[in-house]
Design brief:
Its main location: nucleus. This protein has about 110 residues and is α+β, with helices and mostly antiparallel strands. It has a domain at about 25-90: Winged helix-like DNA-binding domain superfamily/Winged helix DNA-binding domain (Arc Repressor Mutant, subunit A). The protein contains 3 helices and 3 strands; from the N terminus they run H-E-H-H-E-E. It has helices at about 25-35, 40-50, 60-75, and strands at about 40, 75-80, 85. A 3-stranded antiparallel sheet has the order 1-3-2. Helix 1 (about 25-35) packs across helix 2. The radius of gyration is 19 Å and the shape is elongated.
């Protein structure tokens, strides 16, 4: 008979695959939609996400600050004031006008 020690990590019940987008996308959409002067607060970002996305994990209130700190450290978002976040200028979540790719800032524009 197998003991508890013989159990493999993947033998337990599986968590369902989330139906919501990744947290970085939800946060970026919230900040863009809220368009608050001085950046969006954690509570307003959380409220927006809860109102617009179903199937959030029960630990959403703990996960959101974790992801905000992680993504800010990685340059996706920036702190614009105490407890307020904005999209980073270089983070990759900026909307582009016209749907094309933007030229890198250190390269001259293409000649016609």
């Amino acid at each position: 008979m197998a003991s508890k020690d013989d159990a493999k990590p993947g033998d337990g019940p599986r968590r369902p695959t989330p139906t919501h987008p990744p947290y970085d996308e939800m946060i970026a959409t919230a900040i863009r939609s809220l368009c608050e002067e001085g950046g969006s607060s954690v509570s307003s970002i959380s409220s927006y996400i809860q109102a617009n996305y179903a199937g959030l994990p029960s630990g959403h209130d703990r996960l959101l600050p974790f992801y905000l700190n992680t993504y800010t450290a990685n340059g996706l978002f920036m702190v614009s004031g105490p407890g307020h976040y904005n999209l980073s200028l270089t983070g990759g979540h900026q909307q582009q006008d016209g749907g094309g790719t933007a030229a890198a800032p250190d390269q001259p524009p293409p000649q016609p």
